[in-house]
Amino acid sequence: MALKKWTFTVDPQDAELRLDQLIAKRTELSRRAAREALKLGGVQVDRKRVKVAGKLVKPGLEVRVAFDPDLPPVPTTAIPIVFEDEWILAVDKPAGLATQGTWATDRHDLLALLKTQRPDLKLFLHHRLDQGTSGLLVLAKDAKANPGLASAFAGRDLEKLYLVRVSAPLEACTAEAPIGRLRGADPGRFGCEGDLMDPKSARTDFRPATAEEAEGLVPGHYLVARIHTGRTHQIRVHLAHLGRPVLGDSLYGGAPSDRLWLHAWRLGLKHPITGEALRLEAPPARFRT
């Protein structure tokens, strides 16, 4: 993706310009492209998304502009529902879909699609999946469920299992190595070694998938990963650290593939309101032959 980004401060002499005019003056974008960036949600003023082309911006405020000319049409895919009751909603996120808005758009993501699919709902997000990762994601429908879900995903009172395909076998093991952002890395990525920014403890258990668990899947080497912490890119980073990067994970040295072979498969947690034990599952349909 040819994503371009600009950040600038509004000068006093530009205070009378419409926002689309201001963007065209301070970036490489034409007014037409500026209006497209605004429509997609790629413009922030004072860290808040703005979509009004005619808005006047006060001097001294920060403007951020992100524009990706290669963005596909706004998706209309129906998001599969795995579980729903009065308080929570569990969905099976498709691969290739961001969980929430990116720099350049707030219309090409899971939350935007769910808002279109279920305009009656106000949803609250407590965890995320990488754009290339498919599978289970749980949201609160009622604010009363927020404390319970926030506590569950911030702590270790839940079981999160992922299905992963790698290029070579890996015996059962535990990766317990801190994860931090690699300073100066472009594109941005995380690691267990090197010049890490704010490294935090992380633990992931890995084991080979059983024959029953891998039945019907594209032939290959499959692992079941259980994460005990919720660090960004945790499974991807720990597998790269072990010398077994996820197949298709070009960011962390995985062998080339047409997809990232990582799926949030099963989730066990206590219901945030009733306390009932929930066992949720999203079958890995895109891994099947």
UniProtKB/TrEMBL annotation:
Keyword Isomerase: yes
Pfam families in the cross-refs: PseudoU_synth_2, S4
CDD domains for the chain: PseudoU_synth_RluA_like (cd02869), S4 (cd00165)
Alphabetized SMART domains for the sequence: S4
Residues of the RNA-binding S4 domain: 17-80
Keywords: Isomerase, RNA-binding
Alphabetized PROSITE patterns for the sequence: S4
Signal peptide from the UniProt entry: none
Highest rank taxon of the organism: Bacteria
InterPro entries, alphabetized: PsdUridine_synth_cat_dom_sf, PsdUridine_synth_RsuA/RluA, RluA_PseudoU_synthase, S4_RNA-bd, S4_RNA-bd_sf
Family: Belongs to the pseudouridine synthase RluA family.
Name by which UniProt lists this protein: RNA-binding S4 domain-containing protein
